Amino acid sequence: MPELKVFTRDEVAKHNTENDCWIIIDGAVYNVTTFAQLHPGGTQILLELGGKDVTDDFYGLHKQEVLVKYAPRLKIGTLEGEVSQAALPAFGDLSTVPYGEPSYWMGFKSAYFK
Fold it and tell me: Which of 10, 20, 33, 98 is most buried, with most CB under 10 Å away?
């Protein structure tokens, strides 16, 4: 992982274009410029949210493990005076993200398999 820098929210807000797109998730700054084309939800959503704090939007659709997976490549720094509020879930904890876990873990049975 590259050396992490400390940014202000104003600095991050300037990076909101197709060729330079940063986002804030839970006090950390991520450069998603090159990742935008690979994003499963499409490029447009990342470009619309570029330069902003997307913590609530991110955790509404993703599990914490996504950050653990991509942070080494995308995280470029942290926000000045802010610390992470997210805690990694314990092994076996169910996610609150809709469709984030297989339905059988939540006790639902498939209508197609008996």
Answer: 33
